[in-house]
Amino acid sequence: MPLRLVLEPRQAAAPLRALISLGTALGLAWAFGSLVFALAGAEGLSGIGAAWRAMLQGALGSGYSVSEILVKAAPLTLTGLAVALCCRLNLWNIGAEGQFVCGALASCWVALFMAPGLPPRLLLPVALAAGAAGGAAWAFAPALLKARLGVNEILSTLLLNYVAVLFMEHLYYGPWRDPAGFGFPGTAELPEAVWLPTFFGTRVHLGLGLALALAGALWWLLARTRWGFRARVLGLSPKAAAYAGFRSARITVTAMCLSGALAGLAGAGELLGVQHRVQDGLASGLGFAGIVVAFLARLNLLAVPLAALFLGALLVGADQLQTELRLPGTAVLALEAALLFGALLGEFLAANRLRLVRRGRKEAGHAG
Amino acid sequence: MLAEVFGGMDVQGLASLGQIAVKSSTAVLLAAYGEIVAERAGVLNLGLEGMLLLGALAGFAAGAATGDPLLALGAAACAGALAALLHAYFAVSLGVNQVLSGLALSLLGAGLTGVLGRDLLGAPGLVLGSVPLAALADLPVLGQALFNQPLLTYLALLLAPVLSWTFTSTRLGLLVRACGENASAAYASGVPVRLVRYGCTCFGGALAGLGGVFLSLSYTPGWKEGLSAGQGWIAIAMVIFATWRPLRALCGGLLFGVLTAAQFSFQTQGAELVPVWVLRAAPYLLTIAVLTLVQASARLRRNSGPPANLGRFFHPEG
Amino acid sequence: MQPSETPPLLSCHGLSKRFGAADGIGSVLANDVVDLDLYAGRIHALLGENGAGKSTLMSMLSGWLSPDSGEMRLSGAPLVLRSPAAALRAGIGMVHQRFSLVEALSVAENLALASGGAPDARAAAELAHSFGLALDPRRCVAELSMGERQRLEILKMLALGARILILDEPTSVLAPSEIDALYATLRRLADEGRAVVLITHKLPEIAGAADEVSVLRRGRMVARNIPRDPALPDGWDMAALSGLMVGRELPADGAASRREHGEVVLRVRGLRGQGQPPAFSGIDFEVARGETFAIVGVAGNGQEALAATLGGMTRPASGSVEVLGRAIGPRTGRDLVAYVPEDRHGAATVPDLTLAENLLLSTTGSRGAFFSRRAGARSAAAAIRALGVTASGPEALARELSGGNLQKFILARELAKGAPLLLVEQPTQGLDVLAVSEVHAAIRRAAESTAVLLVTGDPLEALALAGRVAVLFRGRIAGVVEASAPDAFDRVGRLMAGLGVDVSNEGGPAVGGPAAGVVAGGAR
Known about the structure:
The complex is a heterotrimer. Chain A is mainly α. Helices cover 72% and strands 4% of the residues of chain A.
């Protein structure tokens, strides 16, 4: 073969790098998705094409489906922010799923058991705050273990996801089960007073506005406040943080709890805005999807809502495929994995240029 | 409380408890060995959970289709190794963030097995049962626990000393350790660092695949979505607990097995003492507790940090 | 010794190496048509400043980089090297400044890694003995001193049959007495028919060891194979070599001026580090305003940990550090110490932040919840002006600055704090000659108004800047030497190597400031 591929580093402008990265992510996801469709029984190229069309139709085909994208984008923005915030500090919060669940449980507890004692006007804010607190509480233990003892937070946050889901199942199969629910596992429907207001007769709820506002607020926190400056320094160089005398352990704990609060808020929003009761399917991978959202946004907090919209469209489209191709719900995980691999490959291609050179010339370079 | 559960237990009960304990540790052990091999060479692979699932499904499908145990094991090992190859390409050749690539692999395993396994849910398949080792199996208590087990459990017990010896006393082990401790020094001495890392990652993937097929053919025969239930993550924690040493991983794995067996025992005899959901959550909580213990105890950590170049990209001209 | 008598063992012609794409911004021509001849039996010194291209040249010779153009010949035959392994097979062995040893492995295992086969302690011991290099094969590399690690590196190369041995800045990690032992070893290896290359930027070092000298400046070879001139005391005209290296005259070093010392600023009492065994213990000394006090030691004798504690980054196990009576620690008294740590690119600055943001790093706690980028930019601009830092402005990223400019920026930032104590750690490591003289001048100016504590591994730097020099050996102060004493350098060198006449006086004697007893300096 006279030609060979050579890689060399490139200095590309930031927007170009983002474009390459995103393009590669989409390209790889498209190729891999096609493969999955073929494996799942789509016949030939036309079958694969039909599957993609079905997905597109499912996501953007009607006003209702577009509104469903917005419904999904609200929690995805929040869990994406949760993951991105931690990553900016060089921390991994893989526990957004568990924090999401705990946030939902905390606000459910407020709505079911504290509601009678609260003035109606306060009910919703308290339920939301409880959600944030629940998520933060679930993140607190891993945060403390990480900051004080250096316990690996990837593992601790991840393992706690399983615990949170088991706890939730215990509650809605046991003590919280709706007595009037004919034995159906799940809590009673929450009183309407705590439902998040919805818009335009769709399921789009106030949580979306909250998520957008929080994206801006979080960006401002990191870029403009002294705490944010310290957090950024800690993320970029722990040694510099020690040199500057920052309280690194405290910043770590605060950031992880903040991250947990965001994920908890996502759970509360999903409960109060969409599901209205705790039941099977409340934790449907929106926490894990936050990882994908954060890295599609390349950890840029202001880009997180856009990435969340995109992934929301993917999720809504994939729902359509479940009926069309009889694909299980987990299929979307494969697409998310392809997006992640694609984003990683894209990062690499954005930093390196592929070039074809004549094999002979390269060897001449070596020898003489 | 413990006395209530274990007090009435006779020798037979103890023997069966021991058998369950050793059996329960198998998948975690195989996956942990695989991770140790990869990490000792410097590659962090958080995709164990995905590789367990892929191995479980591939082995189950091959077993159901052919009825040949060897083919089933081979398919599982190949599936695990192929998945690991994907990670190795991203980690070793492209030098991207290994945590992220591993997480993506875990997602991929869950998603792909969900799609490919939907027609095998609840389908009958091959079962690899216990193979008693002649007279040894008749020994009291220990015989049941150690010598009346499925083949892969024997493999899990034997691999620890074999791997340990390989690391300490062979040239191959020396090369692997050198790549994980100081890749550029190893390269300067003529070690093909990237080849070693590819090899170790794929070998680790094959072991994880075998761990997976143990779950779908021996432990709880049959295919169901997410049957590994976080055992891949527990295996990664086990590697930290074991301070990257196979023999210590064996101890950790057996400890995990004992806890699992105790949990079964509680569920049947002591459910009113401890709520079932707490028992089911116990493996995850105890894993975090063990990780905390390792970090807090200077004695457990002595001379045993992670490989110095773990997760670090090596490029000859970089 | 005429270079033309015998054919060279290794010759290079027209080697060039460029980093970055030829048309790209930021591309550097590290080697520009370089020629070099190496002869068996000779020790060849390759002189050049940091960044002159020495390391690039040697990386090409040892197979780590491939040249863009040019050729190498080994005993007349063309030589193409694609990897370090290939270079080793050709008999070219390189001892990097950063050793390529696996710290977690034993001496025998490191040797086995390089030479093939399974580890064998007895064979390793015999090998070490045969080359006269004393090493215990069972010990873990992490436990070895820098000198022992260097011996192991050399042994590795010899075990592989190296005929050409290249050593990159071999003396930078050694105590003066270890340097003599190294030179003796190198002479013996050359006499056995090997070619030895010493890469260095320190002129005094070549006088003791080299047979011939080449000088590299900005990627070009400006002088080749100049033989030793027996008529000159040092073997070469050092001023001329220095001129070749730098390309222009250096500003003359101002001698440390004699000043009256003011009140005691820094008081260190019974300081003992964390860990078992502690990195340092029994540290007592005082530094007065207007005085420069140096702590010098070979790397690994505890000065890194000591500097971190003195700078307030870590807490001591026991003892106290006080500046003007106030304790220094992670949460207290940080504004009293202007601290320039050794790690310029990771601790003193964050490479990915701007200079304005980096300026705010060590000047925290002054304002409320918001951080003012405008104030940071103003102060950064002032710092840039104060020491003549070459940077595009306050919005330049720290990573874009050269080592010397970054160090000047850090110094300016710390000096602007107006703290009573300036603590500088390894201030000139890795800087080029001009930057070194500028940094030294800035430290001298600072010493006029503050107390200065210098922690360094370089005895020459310590003696050039400080009035008193304390030598740290195995975590204890082995002795304190008055810099003006006529035999100060020898005495510091002996103490650094642990041959201290003063070891019996561990700890205490440095107390009492300039007026108190100076242990080893009899010249008062």
